[in-house]
Amino acid sequence: MTEAILLVGGKGTRLRPLTVHTPKPMVPAAGVPFLTHQLARARAAGVEHIVLATSYLAEVFEPYFGDGSALGLHLEYVTEEEPLGTGGAIRNVASRLHSSPDDPVLIFNGDILTGLDIGALVSTHTTSGADVSLHLTRVEDPRAFGLVPTDPTGRVTAFLEKPQTPEEIVTDQINAGAYVFRRSVIDTIPAGRPVSVERETFPDLLSSGAHLQGMVDSTYWLDLGTPQAFVRGSADLVLGRAPSPAVPGRCGDRLVLPTASVATDAKLTGGTVVGEGAVVGEGARIDGSAILAGAVIGAGAVITDSLIGAGAGIGARTVVSGAVVGDGATVGADNELREGVRVWCGAALPDAALRFSSDQ
Fold first, then answer.
1. What is the spatial distance between Cα 284 and Cα 35, in angstroms, rounded to a whole number?
2. Burial of 194 by CB count in 10 Å (0-12 exposed, 13-18 middle, 19+ buried)?
3. Which of 217, 229, 139 minimizes the C-alpha distance to 180?
């Protein structure tokens, strides 16, 4: 396995305000852009050439990663003029691949954090002789996902999108967003128009008699599509629950990047990361949260399961729980931000503007 396609064109709408100025794969997780973890894991599995299918804020990727040599990779970038969907994006970069028709091409989605055994997926693809192989994982509640039932040999028998009734839930196996395509199959995807690989390409291949193989790997898997999931994924990387060779430090309760400043009596727990140039004041308590570069956390502030954007400011004694504060926003002293609150980039919240009574 030497080639891969990384789909990084999504707008990350559910992650706003994190993605107002930054494409989702470039939002920092455990101290580095999330995409860094995916690239590093691919390289560790033997991938050498990766084509990034970009669209939203496409200009951000290449200045950061360049030709990929710093990661031991050869990176190329292809930008969609109009969003083409997952299948369309794969087809749009096909000309940059060097593989022969029967060679395997690995395909990742740029918003999935996973401990997938990449080598095992490629091996499954090769030994089964499949046209496409899919990483499947098991979930307790599959209603928000596409179900992928298989026969006893692992061969895919159907694709069922987001079932709702008990009768429709025939398996707990879902499409986990990583695939191996036979190179020639990519050329069968229609060019120049939006195509969903999940809703069009895979069902069409199945109905035409193609061999689609599923491999269940239920190690760590998390869709980072929401702010809460992204914060959790970052913390799990710091804690070592999610594997990555790109975490810039030892795994543990906290990760403080070199130029950050943390008061000696501040308490950082639960996989908290404090980014470059960030400042954490005296007596602050931060649990399971991501404090991005240049953010300032005031004395006595309490931050839990939250993300504080780059250059943002949190005032003294302010409590932030399950919330997101956008880049450059300021939240004054003595505020309370509870679960689900999102403060937009550059917004300013005065002192004691938002409080909750003790019985709420």
1. 30
2. middle
3. 217
The set of residues, in sequence order, having a beta carbon less than 8 Å from that of 37 and lying 6+ positions away, is 29, 30, 113, 237, 244, 246, 247
162 given a catalytic annotation: yes
The residue from 11, 24, 162, 267 that is catalytic is 162
Report H helices in the chain: 34-44, 61-65, 85-92, 118-128, 183-186, 202-207, 227-239
Question: Is the separation of the CB atoms in 100 and 183 below 8 Å?
Answer: yes
Residue 226's CB: how many other CB atoms inside 10 A?
A: 12
Residue 13: how many CB atoms within 10 A of its CB?
A: 10
Measured CA to CA, the distance from residue 287 to residue 155 in angstroms comes to 43
137-183 tens-digit pLDDT: 998 877 777 789 999 999 999 988 776 777 778 888 999 999 999 99
Indicate the SS3 state at residue 304.
Answer: strand
Q: Could you give phi then psi for residue 99, rounded to 5 degrees?
A: -70, 155
pTM beyond cutoff 0.70:
yes
